[in-house]
Amino acid sequence: MAHVHERTGGAGGRKIRRRMAITLVLTVTYLVAEAAASWLTGSLALLADAGHMLTDAGGVGLSLFAMVLAERPATPERTYGYYRAEILATMVNALLLLAISGFVLYEAVRRFQDPPEISSATMMIVAAFGLAINSIGVLLLRAGASESLNVKAAYFEVATDALTSVGVLVAGAIMWTTGWYYADPIVSALIGVLIIPRVWRLLREATGILLEGTPAEVSIAAVREAIQRVPGVAGVHDLHVWSLSSGLNSLSAHVVLAADGGHEEARDAVVRLLTQDFPISHVTVQVESRACAQHGMHE
């Protein structure tokens, strides 16, 4: 039996956490300003943006907390540590975004019946400030989004708010130049509709990890074929690949040798192959002779 486990984090993790902390401070600052502006102008688009900013503040804060929690060492009660905290945070963030989007769509439909007059100039100024804040957040989180599903969730929230700010600017410009106040609920509804597909994909990915499904970036067939090409290996069974968290994939397998002897060499070759050629950081391999494998072997 052999296993290899590489722990994530380090300087890269600290850098991402620092960027998330900066993003959180910027988000909370703008949230306070936008909430006040939404009340003063009566803009639903600003309210939609403020709602997303509130979700961002909670989501980024939750993501940051989850990252810190995930760095805690394993315990006898939690032998894999707290990696799944990041995935739980991802699901909470996604559900919050869905709830906010649903509210904005409901309010947009209600306002179509009687769109209120809105202070479009103030609305545009606030939206421009928000676009600048969100753009900074997008730049800070973009690199980490490719490494962690949790960071990706926070990145999507900030990117969504950048999109929302653009929509608010467009709506404000239309109302300022034409006085057509239907632009506010229309843009708000479009923003809500555009958010849902992205959030749904995020939820599906997080659910797949919680259900210990095979990671999308790993092909079981390719892994099985690669193991069987290792010299001295006759076959493989009980092959499982799953994720502890985004970017932290685990594998366990029973490897059957073609002949007695050479257990350590074959085992080391398989472990080296899996950790070098596949995005797998935790490997557990049990080596068996043909005689042992014949008892209770199953795929």
Walk me through what this model shows.
There is one protein chain. A hairpin with a 2-residue loop joins strand 2 (233-245) and strand 3. Helix 1 packs antiparallel against helix 2 (44-70) and helix 3 (84-112) packs parallel to helix 5. The longest helix is centred in the first third of the chain and has 32 residues, at 10-41. The protein has a four-stranded mixed beta sheet with strand order 1-4-3-2. It has 299 residues and is of the alpha+beta class. It has helices spanning 10-41, 44-70, 84-112, 120-145, 149-178, 183-210, 220-228, 263-277, 290-293; strands spanning 2-5, 233-245, 248-257, 282-288. The chain has nine helices and four strands. It has two domains: 2-210, Up-down Bundle (Alpha-lytic protease prodomain-like), CATH 1.20.1510.10; 220-293, Cation efflux protein, cytoplasmic domain (Alpha-Beta Plaits, 2-Layer Sandwich), CATH 3.30.70.1350.
Spell out the blueprint of helices and strands.
Blueprint: E1 2-5, H1 10-41, H2 44-70, H3 84-112, H4 120-145, H5 149-178, H6 183-210, H7 220-228, E2 233-245, E3 248-257, H8 263-277, E4 282-288, H9 290-293
Parallel strand pairs: 3-4
Antiparallel strand pairs: 1-4, 2-3
Give the ordered list of helices and strands.
EHHHHHHHEEHEH
Alpha carbon gap, first and last residue: 19 Å
- CATH class of the largest domain reads Mainly Alpha
Q: Label the CATH architecture of the largest domain.
A: Up-down Bundle
Tally of structural domains: 2
State the helicity in percent bands.
Answer: 55-70%
Radius of gyration: 25 Å
Q: How many H/I helical runs?
A: 9
